[in-house]
Structures are given as structure tokens and as C-alpha cells.
């Protein structure tokens, strides 16, 4: 089985690329979804996060308010949060890939993770795909996705990007790059080319 990491900057369209890969037959896991599970009250991660960042990050029902947490950690304390969350996320995504390999030994497993390279998890993958687009597109997509004005989106994209490697740094560590700045058709062509290469690698040809 081929293990593929999918990453990129904020609002570059990673989930759209993932959907294109799934359509072609990839097994898929979104690592951010694992992190959300770990934030559930009663988990060890929940207790550590609340202990580190205080009860002001909680909703009235005791659940972690991810917006409040993000406001607190970006950009200065993101490494502190990652040190709590990433080890368990990496352990769970590796466990998932092992399960996929048992059920489909010749499959292609794709894990999408925003901070995959920053967390040092790229070593767990055979290949890494990095998705890029230009800054103004990130701002427009974030504004649309979050339903906020452009100036708010720009500030948020800048703030969150400061906690990540730059696109240039990510692409230096990539095996494949998807430039998601153009048309959907152009992006599909890039993904199709990468998918064929992944299939060839998995089959050993």
C-alpha cells in the first residue's frame, strides 16, 4: 500500500484535492477530524488543553470552543498546542493507515493534515502532495468559507499562516505540487497526472 500525505497552506483547497483523489479510488482520512475528536470532554487531550489554555476557551456546556482556542494560540502559542495534540493525532493516523493496508494491501491511503510537515509527520508517508494557491485567493476562499468580510479574512489568513511553514518551504519538501490557482479543469488535470503516478508506484511498475 502507498501512504500519501496531503497538505498545504490555509484555504488552498486541500479538501477539494482530497475529493478528487477519493473519486479516483483513494482511501482518505482528514487528520483535523481526529484532532476534533481529541478535544471531546473526558479525553486526556481535552484535560491537557484546558489545563494549558484555561477555562476561557470553553463553551457553557464545557466543550472546547475552537474559535476561542484559535484566537488564543495563533500565532504565538501554536507550538504549545501542537505539542499536546500532534503525538496522538499522528498515532491515530498511522493506526488508520495500518488498518487500510490490512483491508486493501494494494490501495492508496491519503491523509490530509494542515501541519503535516510542521509536525514532522511527513516521514510517515511514502509521498507528500502540497497544494498551493496565491495569497489573494486564500483570502477570498477563507472569506467565502467563513462568511466574513475580506479584511477580516486577510487578517486571519495572515495570522494563521504565520504559524505554518511558508508555501515555498512546503513545496521544497513536496514530492508533488498541485497549483490550485487556476481553473477546476486545470486542477483536475494535475491531480489525474499525480494519481496515475501514484498508481504506477504502488504497482511497482
Question: Your description of this structure?
Answer:
With 205 residues, the protein is of the alpha/beta class. It has a single domain, classed as P-loop containing nucleotide triphosphate hydrolases (Rossmann fold, 3-Layer(aba) Sandwich). Helix content is 55%, strand content 13%. The protein has 9 helices and 5 strands. It has helices spanning 14-23, 31-38, 44-53, 66-73, 78-103, 135-146, 150-161, 167-172, 184-203; strands at 2-8, 27-30, 108-112, 127-132, 176-179. Strands 2-3-1-4-5 form a 5-stranded parallel β-sheet, sandwiched between helices. Helix 2 packs across helix 5, helix 3 packs antiparallel against helix 5 and helix 6 packs across helix 7 (150-161). The relative contact order is 0.21.
Cα-atom radius of gyration: 18 Å
Helix/sheet category: alpha/beta
- The CATH architecture assignment turns out to be 3-Layer(aba) Sandwich
Q: Which regions are unreliable across 5 or more consecutive residues at pLDDT < 50?
A: none
Number of domains: 1
Question: Order of helices and strands, N to C?
Answer: EHEHHHHEEHHHEH
Overall pLDDT level? 93
Q: Please identify the top-level CATH class.
A: Alpha Beta
Global outline = globular
**Helix-residue proportion:** 40-55%
Main sheet specs: 5 strands, parallel
CATH domain fold name: Rossmann fold
Strand content: 5-15%
Strand order of the largest sheet: 2-3-1-4-5
Distance between the termini: 14 Å
Per CATH, the superfamily is P-loop containing nucleotide triphosphate hydrolases
Q: Give the count of helical stretches.
A: 9
How many strand segments?
A: 5
Amino acid at each position: 500500500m502507498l501512504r500519501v500525505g496531503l497538505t498545504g497552506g490555509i484555504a488552498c483547497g486541500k479538501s477539494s484535492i482530497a475529493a478528487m483523489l477519493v473519486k479516483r479510488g483513494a482511501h482518505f482520512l482528514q487528520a483535523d477530524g481526529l484532532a476534533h475528536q481529541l478535544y471531546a470532554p473526558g479525553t486526556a487531550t481535552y484535560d491537557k488543553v484546558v489545563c494549558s489554555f484555561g477555562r476561557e476557551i470553553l463553551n457553557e456546556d464545557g466543550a472546547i470552543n475552537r474559535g476561542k482556542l484559535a484566537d488564543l494560540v495563533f500565532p504565538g502559542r501554536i507550538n504549545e498546542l501542537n505539542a499536546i495534540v500532534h503525538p496522538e493525532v499522528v498515532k491515530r493516523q498511522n493506526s488508520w493507515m495500518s488498518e487500510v493496508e490490512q483491508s486493501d494491501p494494494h490501495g492508496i491511503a491519503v491523509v490530509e493534515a494542515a501541519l503535516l510537515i510542521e509536525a514532522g509527520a511527513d516521514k510517515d508517508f511514502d509521498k507528500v502532495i502540497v497544494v498551493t494557491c496565491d495569497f489573494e485567493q486564500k483570502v477570498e476562499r477563507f472569506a467565502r468559507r467563513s462568511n466574513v468580510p475580506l479584511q477580516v479574512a486577510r487578517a486571519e489568513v495572515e495570522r494563521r499562516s504565520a504559524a505554518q511553514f511558508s508555501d515555498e518551504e512546503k513545496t521544497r519538501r513536496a514530492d508533488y505540487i498541485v497549483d490550485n490557482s487556476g481553473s477546476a479543469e486545470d486542477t483536475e488535470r494535475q491531480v489525474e497526472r499525480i494519481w496515475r503516478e501514484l498508481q504506477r508506484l504502488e504497482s511497482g511498475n
